[in-house]
Structures are given as structure tokens and as C-alpha cells.
Amino acid sequence: MSKTLRKAVLLLLCLFFPTQAHAGAITRVNDGQMVTMQQLTAKAEVADLVLIGEVHDKPAVHDLQLSIIRSLQDKKQPMAIGLEVMQSNSQQQLDDWVSGKMTEEQFQPVFAQNWSYDWRLYRDIFIFARDNKIPLIALNVPKEIVVKVSRQGYKALSKEEIKNLPPGTNADLNNTHTEFLKRAFQPLFKSVSNGKVFEYFCEAQTLRNSGMAMTLAQYVRQHPNTKMVVLAGIWHAIKNAVPEQLDRKGNRLSSVVIMPEIQEFSGGKATADLIDYLVQLPPP
Description:
- By secondary structure, this protein is α/β, with parallel strands linked by helices.
- It has one domain: 3-Layer(aba) Sandwich (Rossmann fold).
- The chain is built from 12 helices and 8 strands.
- It has helices spanning 3-16, 37-45, 59-73, 91-99, 104-114, 119-131, 143-152, 159-163, 176-185, 196-222, 234-237, 242-248, and strands at 26-28, 33-35, 49-54, 79-87, 136-140, 227-233, 255-260, 277-279.
- α3 runs parallel beside α6, α7 (143-152) packs antiparallel against α10 and α10 packs across α12.
- InterPro entries: Cofac_haem-bd_dom.
């Protein structure tokens, strides 16, 4: 076969059989058993809420996210994708993107205003959602509010700022995620003289988890029987973060939490109270 013909065949194969994420070992955390991608997606198919945690700058993670989204889309069930990368005050632009009212050139500056990581990391997911008319839901609390809470605490927010948050959003630190943050991150703050810095950090994290949960709950109420796929950072997608905030407000959604293997979860450190499936990704 000539080089030209071989290239043409490869191009056709790419067009008809889009590249999927080639995940490594997949562990079902509750019993430590290895499972296939088909078994993982079968569990995702019957869940109301599928959370896929991400390391934001890892292309293989986003390939995995898209692979699972493609598998769920094949089932022809109503689905929406919730995005940490977009702030709630940009929902109209997301709607315009999905409906085709905005070109990629027009949308990229909007994305850049919302998220500091490279558009190319997320591009294939956004394109797939637009081409298949899958609603994209902006989950994140507006950046300026998060920054204010992280520097001054939740009590510093004005009534108007609180009013602009999703109804039910709070920064109550009486939750298991805060206890987890204390174990995982408090030592990093020991060198900071102001003892309030860690408290404000926890309030900002709780505010984001709570805000994302309330936005999800509102969307599900308005669109019953819709499967929600949530793409968010690992420390928002674990069970004691956004899922727990949903439970605290009485939103009983069955969920599956899928995580890439990172150092904090390696060597048997992943536990079923945080994660359902742990996916080993290929090296970069």
C-alpha cells in the first residue's frame, strides 16, 4: 500500500471511528475488583448523576470524560453536562453555543473569561455537546464571589451578592468535606500567620460545592428523568463534596463517582466513601 493510500485509509478510519480514551486498569473501589470500561459505563447508564473528576490540565482525563459521554449518548436518553469550568452568570452564552448561535471564535473569549486552562483541553467535549444538542450547564459560583469569600469569609458577602447565588447555597463548615480538607490540606497553611486563612479557604470550597449542587438540583427539578454528567475537579466531585451537598438538601439522586488515579488515591488509598471507580490513565 502506498504512503498516500495508507494516509487516506487512516483518515477515513478516524472519521468513522472517533478516537476513544484508552484507559488502563479500572478498579471498583468498594471491593477492589478490576472491571472493564463496559462494566463501568453500564453502572453510569442507570445512575441519575455521573461525576467524573478531573485533573484540569491532563488531556487523558478529558479524553476519558468524552469517552463516557459518548457511551451514554449512544443510549439516546436525555442528558445534560454540568461544568465547573463555566460560571453561572455565563449560562446564556453556553446556551447560545449549544444552539449554534456562537461560533468557536466567538465563544473562546467567553471560555477564557471563565477558566484559565487552555480551551483545547476541553474543545472536543464542547464540540460534541454542540453537535449533539446536549445542554451544557454552568455550575460554578461567579469568580468574584469565590475570591471575596476566600479572602474575607462568607460573612463579608453583601445581601445582593448572596441573592445572586443559587437558592439554598451556603458556606456552612459543619460537613464531612471540611473535615476531609482539614486532614488533607490544613498542614499547607501552617506557615500562614492569619488563622482565618484556612477557614476562609474551606468556606470558599463549601460555597462552590453547595452552589454547584443547588444548580444541579434546580436543573433536575425542571428537567426530570435527565441524566446529569458532571465534569469537575477531583475535590468537588468526590462523594463528600457536591454529592453530599445534594443529599443535605434532600435531593436523593443515585450517583456514580469516577476518578482518575492520582497520588492521593494510589496504593489502596482510595476508599468507597469517596469514590466508586478509579481509572488508571495512560502516561502522557
